[in-house]
Amino acid sequence: MSVTDDARTALRHTDRLFIGGEWVTPSSDAMFDVDDSSTERTFLRVAAANAADMDRAVTAARTAFDDGPWRTLSHAERAGYLRAIHAGVVARSAEITDMWPRESGVVRAVAQVAAPGFVSQFQQYADLAADYPFEEPVTPTAGGNFGLIVREPVGVVGAIVPWNGPMGSIAKKVAPALLAGCTVVLKSAPEAPGEGYLLAEVAEQVGLPPGVLNVVTADREVSELLVRDPRVDKLTITGSTAAGRRVASICGERIARCTLELGGKSAAVVLDDADIAHAATTLAGAECFLSGQVCSSLTRIVVSRHRHDELAEALSAAFGAIRVGDPFDEATQMGPLAAERQRDRVEGYIATGIEQGARLTTGGGRPEHLDRGWYVEPTVFADVDNSSRIAQEEIFGPVLSVVPARDDADAVRIANDTMYGLNASVFTPDVDRARAVAAELRSGTVGHNAFRSDMGIAFGGFKQSGIGREGGREGLLPYLETKTVILDGPPARYRD
């Protein structure tokens, strides 16, 4: 397939890889075609890294950490680079809001609003340089006269990012890693490599030292080489729970550090006193984002039996009225899925839901007015058994399941009856009831009357939704190793 003429990207080096501060020629001529999710036409082609290229990228990152200046810079100096990167990416935000809809199917108007928040991670982590306790005096408890807790960079980081929201995942991994003093090999998804290339061009523009950030696009086989390489001290991945299990098992073999931001099957618990109309419009609207291709989507709607039909009807009316279409059309509320295989996956789950006895109340097919692109209708199932596949497995598409419960306690039990624990929400006008239910939910985030996710605080999951947290001060800790230093006396900076 050839690249279409309507591609809107100013990326300059898509036939190369960014390694050691240079745009290098790959060791093979293999390329990835990146298809536009709404037209099914290839709009971008990028170099595919193979084993030799991944080895070269890891070597560059290892050399930059061990022998380069980056690790020895002050946090304030590294923060200066982060601010420059932030400014450079912001200056090219229009490119992100053109690439992201094509790669992943997000509506462009939504991308324009969401992208600045993702990019702001670089600025937020730069701000932490001023007051984060990278070194603290402590009182020794087993000898010695003066102690320090020192938080040092973990080393070389392998960062694996997904296709659904690449810039957001890139920023919340690369920004804290760089502030900590780590060097990074960033591995982009073949379906959505554009934002990685853009960041590499910005890194080159701001003069980031060679090897501090290396950017490659690779398939699963080559990506696993990054995970296995003993020169990589830490892995961080956003992806499916299946991918996380694989990464964790390999890291376990060599005791490598890892942060896993994985899947979800998040519950919205709608209490008896909730405003049903508000809950329905809120949940339907939230599921429009990225066509439901969001790990923290609230896709299980748990409500008491006597309000189940009312909510199912309201939710079906709200979700069924969503305008599906071209993500570049200002009237569109929900775009396509990212790829044909993703649409096949979602359609397979819809068929399974029907087979297992759930009641389809809206959607379930493809929009009749769209003959190109990987579109699926907004879909709602009612009377869903929480043990069914559509209630237990991550669908990653615009499919909502309404699950009846006996009472509040049963609703909490159902919400927790999953291997996941990434996100949740409680719908009630009573703040105290919301707080009480939140205390019972086994979830990394719990919102109130809305879909909530705050990368400025912390994001991550319980159970098989992952290990560790990203965003905010909590998101810096995984890139630091704690060292205890015990001295006979205080060093100069601590003496009066």
From TrEMBL:
The answer to whether the entry has keyword Oxidoreductase is yes
Q: Which GO terms describe its molecular function?
A: oxidoreductase activity, acting on the aldehyde or oxo group of donors, NAD or NADP as acceptor
Q: InterPro entries, from UniProt?
A: Ald_DH/histidinol_DH, Ald_DH_C, Ald_DH_CS_GLU, Ald_DH_N, Aldehyde_DH_dom
Alphabetic keyword roster: Oxidoreductase
The record's section on Gene3D superfamilies has: Aldehyde Dehydrogenase, Chain A, domain 1 (3.40.605.10), Aldehyde Dehydrogenase, Chain A, domain 2 (3.40.309.10)
The keyword Oxidoreductase belongs to this UniProt entry's keyword annotation? yes
Entry similarity comment: Belongs to the aldehyde dehydrogenase family.
- List the protein's name: Acyl-CoA reductase-like NAD-dependent aldehyde dehydrogenase
